[in-house]
Automatic annotation (TrEMBL):
InterPro entries per UniProt: GHMP_kinase_C_sf, Mev_decarb, Mev_diP_decarb, MVD-like_N, Mvd1_C, Ribosomal_Su5_D2-typ_SF, Ribsml_uS5_D2-typ_fold_subgr
GO cellular component: cytosol
EC top class, as a word: lyase
Pathway connected to this protein: Isoprenoid biosynthesis; isopentenyl diphosphate biosynthesis via mevalonate pathway; isopentenyl diphosphate from (R)-mevalonate: step 3/3
Organism: Multifurca ochricompacta
GO molecular function terms noted in the UniProt entry: ATP binding; diphosphomevalonate decarboxylase activity
Protein name: Diphosphomevalonate decarboxylase
């Protein structure tokens, strides 16, 4: 008997221009475009195996070994049914194909990074889920086409379908057909940039991204300014900086955008605080490091939590790790820098 099964993994991505706000919560259409770097270390990935079998009684999903319910109409269910729809249209074109679209699927997904790393797993998780179903169904879809579906699982997931430097173009179509991820530059274009993940706290965050960003959309006037006046120019400027491998410019924009994202969180009613005192001390340290160097040698960025991600050219990583360990000697996780690219120690 033929076994229909596929296993695919997808990496974590960290945004330089932040996604924060939806104009359509069901389709997950953002209020602004965003841009990220996909981390290419083997140990920061979600791996998903999908299997289709007519003997299964229904679709099921296991996350890190624990079964999760698939709510009808929910994000998981949407991604699975969209992928089945693509398979069904392929089967219509080629009647020799087995009718996998009619079989229930069992999906098992796991992350190889500890939850303690404080990294959101929804981006890599939904990207891996969609990629594994695309492989199972042998869909001739491009990463951008798959990103349309991963986006409906979790917005940031659409960017994890590509490696390297990736933009999520917000699009304007009401049906979301042009809200997708595109490659800005492959990883090989700029292998010198590394990322250092500094675990400040592994506590579960107080406000989830999904509910936090909606509160921001409903209450923050600063967000409206950000959407209209700030992000479009930053998207062009950072794309240019990436294409020109201009680190100081890339870093300046990345830090400004992290700061503005946390400002719109603070401008939300009631306010949302993701940074803590240690996060702010790291911002001060990197600022001082750059000031004394007379040039920008490192960029910090923070997502919906207190943990820092520091982007820097490879040659600066060792110095930055030593600096962090000097000022935060108790912060043992700094000793394990996750380098982007060629090696673990930067
Ligand atoms: C980002 N974040 O661009 C931003 C920066 C957090 C801060 O994408 O509701 O988990 O699933 O679409 O993708 C977090 O948002 O939210 C996020 P949903 P998601 O990476």
């Amino acid at each position: 008997m033929t076994v229909y099964q596929a296993t695919v993994s997808a990496p974590v991505n960290i945004a330089c221009i932040k996604y924060w706000g939806k104009r359509d919560t069901k389709l997950i259409l953002p209020t602004n475009s965003s841009l990220s770097v996909t981390l290419d270390q083997d140990h920061l990935r979600s791996t998903t195996t999908s299997r289709a079998d007519p003997s299964f009684d229904k679709d099921k999903l296991w996350l890190n070994g624990k079964e999760e319910s698939i709510q009808p109409g929910g994000r998981l269910s949407t991604c699975i049914s969209e992928m089945k729809r693509l398979r069904a249209s392929l089967e219509l074109q080629n009647s020799d194909l087995p009718k996998l679209s009619t079989f229930p699927v069992h999906i098992a997904s796991s992350n190889n990074f500890p939850t303690a790393a404080g990294l959101a797993s929804s981006a890599s998780g939904f990207a891996a889920l969609v990629a594994s179903l695309a492989s199972l169904y042998e869909l001739p879809a491009t990463p951008s086409e798959l990103s349309l579906i991963a986006r409906q699982g979790s917005g940031s997931a659409c960017r994890s379908l590509f490696g390297g430097f990736v933009a999520w173009e917000m699009g304007s179509a009401p049906d979301g057909s042009d809200s997708l991820a595109v490659e800005v530059a492959p990883r090989e274009h700029w292998p010198d940039i590394h990322a250092l993940i500094c675990v400040v706290s592994d506590d579960k965050k107080g406000t989830s991204s999904t509910s936090g960003m909606q509160r921001t959309v409903e209450t923050s006037t600063l967000l409206q300014h950000r959407i209209a006046q700030v992000v479009p120019a930053r998207m062009s400027a950072i794309t240019k900086a990436i294409l020109q491998r201009d680190f100081p410019e890339f870093a300046r924009i990345t830090m400004q955008d992290s700061n503005q994202f946390h400002s719109v969180a603070l401008d939300t009613d009631p306010p949302i605080f993701y940074l803590n005192d240690v996060s702010r001390a790291i911002i001060a340290l990197i600022t001082e490091y750059n000031r004394t160097a007379g040039t920008i040698k490192a960029a910090y960025t923070y997502d919906a939590g207190p943990n820092a991600v520091i982007y820097a050219p490879k040659e600066n990583i060792k110095e930055i790790v030593e600096l962090l360990l000097h000022y935060f000697p108790q912060a043992e996780p700094f000793a394990d820098p996750f380098a982007l690219g060629v090696d673990k120690q930067g």
